[in-house]
């Protein structure tokens, strides 16, 4: 047995080997040590190898999926080795014959299909990057849904595309593995290197054609060699990991960078599109917008947020569909109730195609298609938009398959086909006959037991069953002597004696057992055969089912966005080919929701107008204190543009968006110590990417450029950056800064306007109004914000002294830095803090208002009690 294990393990280096032994997957040697630590399970030993104990650990087969998920998340790959025959079949070859075993599947992050291993509302992409001469391409597939895409892209765009797709695993040529390791690890993606032969475009084309049963790729469109290479590498990897059992994939769809808004990784992170900065969906735009009723709709929503469109017709078609739902809310609610009943058709179909499905997947297809027809009935009489009309046309046409599955399956089938009991009574006459024999046989057993009790007078006599003896008669040792004596000894045949019981059989019981067992096994065999027939019928309709699933996703997303717009008071944006960017009453959707949930305070809406003429920039230079809401204002306008182009209503009272080609955001401070980058270096790298890539259709938001270095260095960089955006990039931009000197640019550069976030001072404290107005801030209120943060009073008082001295020196001019330092003096002993301001107590305030001569004795006594109560509080 160990020789067999070592042979299989040698063929799968780099993966943990789950070696099936009965009801357990067992691991040995270094695999056992690594798995025991990763899974926190006991490490034992079994036998010896080369004189040393063999480490061993194992997990139950029935609970293997949970352990697989843990291992995959910790970066392991797992080769699942199954028994290819039963022990009984192995013994036919010889007494010491080893059960045949082989690896049936290599489990990797990008090749998961089980519901328990996947997030239902997210895609699980496996991607491949190929480079052929001077051209590159990226292909990606989700084998759990069948989605298959490819696009040409320059290598410099690989990072942004990986940020958009978030694949679990990326396949590259072994020669490129070390080169791309740093980039890929930044996104937490598993990197897999394949031999160069897997990327050969000639053999790749043949693999694609064989998979889809076509003679030439022209049936799917025109592809460059790099695209064919990337797609072929994906298929090659699937053949390796699925051991030749390829998933049901849809024809590859070619994508183009020119059709979607380009968003780099830093911008996605800063805007918290699909994940909050703290991790997870909560607090992200996706988390707020997801009101979808189906898993397919949720996955489509994430794709739309990640890839807003730049094609005006597509955007307006999507907005029309949302408007239909918005204007017909009663119908929308009825449709959403139906949508909630629809299972995940894509993943059920994928599991069936890979032989990892079961009766519940058959029922999921049946139920999903039936509810799809219900959707079509509800939408049929309506005056629909183009997108919804196209979707409705893909919902129907499944009546024969639905009828077949409805007749064949029970309402609630079991999980596994081997358990039986999923085929409905009356569907198959042969099955009904076998079940009748099986079930009536059990009744006969009960009757036979009653007869034996009556004949022998032994009330404790039982007929039982186990896997070793089959059916047997069991009684206590006390009564056994009676059964072994005449006249019962001729009927009852002794089989086994245990510590407290004696077991017998009879000729009649043995014959009945054979009949019952054959009937039960026969019924199971019939059900397995029917399962395969039903599965085949479903797979023959896979293309149509896939189109229905896509239609469900479109309808679900449109209606969920309509429901969201109604609940949150959003409006339909006007989107066109102009360079307009005019928003009235704009709000940050995530912050608005958080305020409502935490404090109930209303969000202060603000206008923004970055509309620009052709070939001209329009930039707002935003000043104001920290905590006043500058970053929120910047982000909300970027999110409104993104939401409009994904085809959603937006949080504003009015919005007019000219198509945005690129979205760039440089907001917040962070470092990258692992790559040797300080906070300032990260800031400069991200700023450089913007200035080198942004075009005149881009929307750019920049926050506090240059703050990570000395004042004059930072001001110089920020000044030059704004000039470059204006003169070279000609972008629409929001530029927030604390450098008030930059407000002078508004008078020098056409299209640059000053705006500020208003604040109010009251008795030495600053009150944030969160209102954005035209004009420039006179100061930053940094000391007041520090006071709000809770810095000690002595520090705040000292800061005011230093600030006054610095501002006086700047006003008077000519004062050198050394002179100001000597005058303060900044670096001498810190002076004693000024005495704290004594606040008047309530008692003192009351006493100040009293005129003793006007008090009666009774009033004076009442006043004493009142003051005493005030003193206690």
Automatic annotation (TrEMBL):
Any one Gene Ontology BP term: mismatch repair
Binding positions (ATP): 624-631
Domain of life per record: Bacteria
Gene Ontology, cellular component aspect: cytosol
Keywords: ATP-binding, DNA damage, DNA repair, DNA-binding, Nucleotide-binding
Domain DNA mismatch repair proteins mutS family: 698-714
Gene Ontology MF term list: ATP binding; ATP-dependent DNA damage sensor activity; damaged DNA binding; mismatched DNA binding
InterPro entries: DNA_mismatch_repair_MutS, DNA_mismatch_repair_MutS-lik_N, DNA_mismatch_repair_MutS/MSH, DNA_mismatch_repair_MutS_C, DNA_mismatch_repair_MutS_clamp, DNA_mismatch_repair_MutS_core, DNA_mismatch_repair_MutS_N, DNA_mismatch_repair_MutS_sf
CDD domains: ABC_MutS1
PANTHER family tied to this protein: DNA MISMATCH REPAIR PROTEIN MSH1, MITOCHONDRIAL, DNA MISMATCH REPAIR PROTEIN MUTS FAMILY MEMBER
Record function comment: This protein is involved in the repair of mismatches in DNA. It is possible that it carries out the mismatch recognition step. This protein has a weak ATPase activity.
Classification via HAMAP family: MutS
Recorded family membership: Belongs to the DNA mismatch repair MutS family.
Protein's recorded name: DNA mismatch repair protein MutS
Source organism of the structure: Sulfitobacter sediminilitoris
